[in-house]
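To whoever is on call:

I kicked off a structure prediction for a single chain this morning and the downstream step that reads the tokens threw a length-mismatch warning. I double-checked the sequence; it's 257 residues and nothing unusual in it as far as I can see. Pasting both halves so you can look.
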Amino acid sequence: MLKELTRADWLRILDIPEQKIPAVLILRGTRNLGSQYQAILPFFSDIFEVGSPNGIFEDVLIGEIRSHSVGFACVYGASMASEIVHVFGKLGTRAVILTGNCGALADDLSAGDLFVAERAFCGEGAAQYYKPNGQWVTATKELLGSRVFAELGPPGLRRGAMYTTAALLAEGMEDLQAWFAQGFAAVDMETATAYAVAESFGMDRLAVHYVFDNPRRREHLLLTDADKDKRRAQADAMMKEITLGLAVELSDKYAAE
């Protein structure tokens, strides 16, 4: 069945030219799949849109950034994240960089801050099929020390543990307080999944998010104001610059190996 599909199978199914297989995949975790996909297009050239005969994949591309082939996909939640990382892992992509937004749990994180998930807890249900032993997954240490972070990362860039859940609207204050008490700085819906699947394929991995809100301070996604919107937009732009720069840095590194 699907698990047994090989690299050759996926190349044929998706009609991807072998020379276009990217060394790096960028995932955007978002509910707004179409709009975020359109927003990233100006950053790429020579775009190849990845699809399939039955339309199972949408909002996925392979394009050029500074003469490097880089993959990009919009995903929402564990199922979509696992599928895209799985396919690119089968194709031989070397690294996955996850971006998007997260909810803050730590007291010192606010809307518009940038957060890097050094490790993540699999609370979403999909990771278990790729990591049957244990529920913790980690970022690749070498990526945490990349040149791009040193040059572009803001002074207040926060690192810590992410809790990945599968049911956004089921989060209650009791859950948030419990996760905070266990040492989690933020919560999202894709990080642990992406890390677990990437780990199973031997891929490097890292997640960079901007904070949308801090629900422990009663600041949830249904509330907004102009100042927070401005901070989020600035953080989103910086997050894109960092992740695109990291994709190029990694592509250079893998090409030189």
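Update from on-call: the warning came from a stale cache, not from the record. Cleared it. Sanity check on the structure: The chain has one domain: 2-252.
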